[in-house]
Design a protein that fits this description.
The chain is an alpha/beta fold. It is 33% helix and 15% strand. 38% of the residues are buried.
């Protein structure tokens, strides 16, 4: 079976050994980690200053175009290898817990896709990242309360202001009481301008005494 369907690392293409899944240990060790979770007033937190209230914010690794880790995200987001999100979510969560601020998280919430887009893709990649974090944190994963109520154009080629405009009032919380008094870890795959996360946080702020921290797998 291995001759016909070789079990290869999605990042480097080398054969995986027993105990490895999707990503080899060598590539995991080479992930360009930010370690922002150990830094006060880090680059991710600064992107939200003066915009929306955030308790803590961090990204697991640096995103660079053309790198093998761009390919890793492409596999997660577009090639159906959703389990990559869960694997990386577990590794990232173990490191997040080095910072006591993340120990107070009550709920894990993914940035939602519009139902049409999720149906077309077959899954929400951010939800799969959340599955890994939820397993390590031992905290509930909530996927049905924060929803994307409006379908928008892709953000890829838009300017910062156009991204902001495109994200206005597209998220809502169906049951604000479920989030009352909770510390939520809001999770997405890649942080670029932060406009999507800002829009989510604005919707979450409709719950009483809610606290929001942010985690993304990568930062561009």
């Amino acid at each position: 079976m291995d001759l016909l369907f070789p079990n290869l690392c999605v990042t480097c293409g080398e054969s995986l050994v027993k105990g490895e899944s999707f990503i080899c240990l060598k590539c995991l060790n080479e992930v360009p980690k930010t370690n922002f979770h150990l830094q006060k007033e880090n680059e991710v937190e600064k992107r939200f200053w003066g915009k929306v209230p955030v308790e803590k914010a961090t990204s697991y690794f640096f995103f660079e175009k053309g790198s093998k880790f761009q390919h890793l995200l492409h596999e997660l987001k577009y090639k159906g290898n959703k389990e990559i999100g869960e694997i990386l979510g577990k590794y990232a969560a173990a490191e997040l817990l080095q910072n006591e601020a993340y120990n107070s998280v009550d709920l894990i919430v993914p940035v939602p896709l519009h139902p049409k887009k999720e149906a077309k893709r077959g899954y929400n990649q951010s939800e799969w990242i959340c599955k890994g974090i939820s397993a390590v944190f031992n905290k509930p994963l909530i996927v049905n309360n924060l929803i994307r109520s409006k379908e928008t154009e892709t953000q890829t080629k838009k300017s910062v202001y156009e991204r902001f405009e495109n994200m206005q009032d597209i998220f809502e919380v169906k049951n604000p009481a479920e989030f009352n008094g909770k510390h939520i870890l809001l999770v997405d795959d890649v942080l670029t301008t932060g406009s999507t996360l800002e829009a989510c946080i604005q919707a979450l702020q409709k719950s009483k005494n809610v606290k929001v921290s942010v985690f993304t797998l990568a930062i561009a």
